[in-house]
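Structure ticket #2291
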Amino acid sequence: MAQKAAKQQPTFTWEGVDKRGERVKGENKASNVTMMKAELRRLGIQPKTVRKKSALSSLGQRKKKIEAGDIAVFSRQLATMMGAGVPLVQGLDIMAQGHQNPSMRELIQNIKTDVEGGTNLSETLRKHPRHFGDLFCNLVEAGESAGVLDTLLDKLATYLEKTESIKKKIRKAMFYPSAVIAVAFIVTAILLIFVVPEFQNMFQSFGADLPVFTQFVINLSDLFQNYWYIIFGGIIAAVVAFVAVHRRSPKFRRFLDRVLLKLPIVGPILDKAATARFGRTLSTMFAAGVPLVEALESVSGACGSTVYEDAIMEMKDQVASGQQLNVAMRLSNLFPHMVVQMAAIGEESGSLDTMLAKVADFYEEEVDNQIDSLSSLLEPLIMAVLGVLVGGLVIAMYLPIFQMGQVV
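Resolution: structure written out below.
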């Protein structure tokens, strides 16, 4: 009956200030505005605005996919709540009620239910491996053991925000070359299928041989008109096959990663991004008190490259046998001299986490600058490629007209 009554209560959206003076907001159910304000004050939040949520705003809400950014926000909000003295269960309840993503709201509600039943937060999170990886769960477990869960959740939020930022930049760097190829192909196909045939009908009335370049374009147009379904179907099938093989074949992924790292422009960006992820992940785990060997095993899967993954697993075996980290890094032949030296200084001074964090900061900035430069370079390149394609087709179509003018 109590649960039924709670479901019938209206939902209120609120904004307020917590004990740290930081602005927080969310959604909660209450019988009226007064009870909502009283509940917020009990949780240590000074309410500023409290409004009843209209029923129309809840209509049409669809489940959305839970993104990495949602998990980062979850970590940041939970760290803020716990740092402000809000108990874990109540903090989860506030977040569940206030989240805009229904899927995330459902996930947090499930976590809250398990924690209320007496399960540790780390054990609860392990039940959702799709959203919380081993690295996340290990750090939460370390925070629970040391009694510094809020601090480690804050570090996790920073780590997730930084790594997600790097991923977005890498996608941006890979998007531009793909966009050039895709746009060039689509524009060419449209011209060959719809525009060139109009000129071809006109040329048939000339009764003269066409220039070689014009005839080549017309033959290409005939090919696209007669076999467009095979061409487009083949391209789609090739993309689907590529994705399937990439997912299922470790050998193909290793081959592709090696090729990508050797590319002239994209390769250095991917290389520096992997180094930044290595530094950020290992710094976060080492600062949380995770043993170096165990930390390296988690780091290997976080670099985004199978080349680095294999090298870090070899480094882990070397460190486990007594080798220093900086020596193992040097033997891998993957890390720049500066990174190896920073790791050596960190090991000697006992500040490895700080040094690796500085390495991550440096290479994240390098990736950002190189992607900006790549974007500036590719924008005129796109225009040049499209100009050459469109201009070439236009010239091919007007060559017979020019020849006729010369004859006249």
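Closing remark: The longest helix spans residues 352-407.
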